[in-house]
Amino acid sequence: MSSVRAGADAASPLALACLRRPVPHTPVWFMRQAGRSLPEYRAARGTGGILDAIADPALAAELTLQPVRRYGVDAAILFSDIVVPLHAIGFGVEVEPGRGPVVAEPFTSRSDLARLRPFVPEEDAPYVGQAATIAVRDLAPEVALVGFAGAPFTLASYLVEGGPSRTFARVKSLMRADPSLWDALVERLADMAAASLAAQVRAGATVVQLFDSWAGVLTPAEYERFALPPTCRVLEAVRPLGVPGVLFGVGTGELLALMARAGAEVVGVDWRVPLDEARRRVGPDHALQGNLDPSACLAPFEVVAREARDVLRRAGSTPGHVFNLGHGVLPETDPGVLSALVELVHAEGRAGVLPR
Ligand code: CP3
Fold this sequence. Notes:
16 helices
């Protein structure tokens, strides 16, 4: 472990909750906490593309830290994107404002495997580790740094579809038509994610999250055959790093029991499944992360508070709850609501909370 924060990190409320240990308070952070809902983000970002902002270590570190200063959350998430490794190896991925990742020449056949060369983080995208190093310097020891990567299925969906998709018909067709090509594709994407996460941990990340954002389009049988094995491959590679892992996806209610077998300490839950029901599906051996509906944060605060208390109540009192939204912060969210929400969770969270 190269991080000088390693000793203190063990005590971060986020890492403790991930390991289902007692915590001083329920840790809380928000997916997409850095972003367009923050005026200081819009000011610092200016008009450049997001991949340019990510490639500027000082700017990326600043964008990583802004939500910690503003909200008092228990974690910073490195300002980057799941498509950065694919962009960095020259696959031809860009991020279109308001749309998301787009691929000029999508992955269609076996010959495209040659375009997926191994990702060498310190050479191909040194700015990611540099941003983490700068951010860590300014983070209090009890605030975790979350490193992240896209899970193989979700990354493959962008490569095969060529951009965001509603039906995921192309990616599902490829799976069915040529399972062995699929396996070769996701194996490469797994190794890419593992390399990326390892580099982020070397640079100071103390928790890692694997985003399988779009896995919810798969049936349990499809998930088990096509998405779970490469996800296990990533998490197996990450295990020796000694940091807790979170596996998250949207619309994954029917997949939660399978996701619990992937090798992550924490299963992220979207807002559709109440946490007590998610607990039944996942079992007792994992922490849960979630799961306030992001759109609830657009309501008056008394409504936000009521729904947040319901999440805390369903999380129960046994250790192993990380409060988060069920997906990312919506750009139209009032930052004041999120600050008040952090206060509420810190004051009222009970899962594994030590007597004060
Ligand atoms: O605080 C944070 O979470 C910031 C770091 C972060 C970004 N992307 C920056 C970003 C993280 C963790 C991501 C992950 C990511 N990127 C995921 C998984 C999380 C999820 O939402 O399910 C996915 C699917 C992507 C791919 C991607 N990149 C999408 C779908 C978009 C949104 C397009 C849009 O404009 O709405 C992006 C662009 C992007 N990545 C933005 C941010 C802050 C928004 C564009 C911008 O601010 O310029």
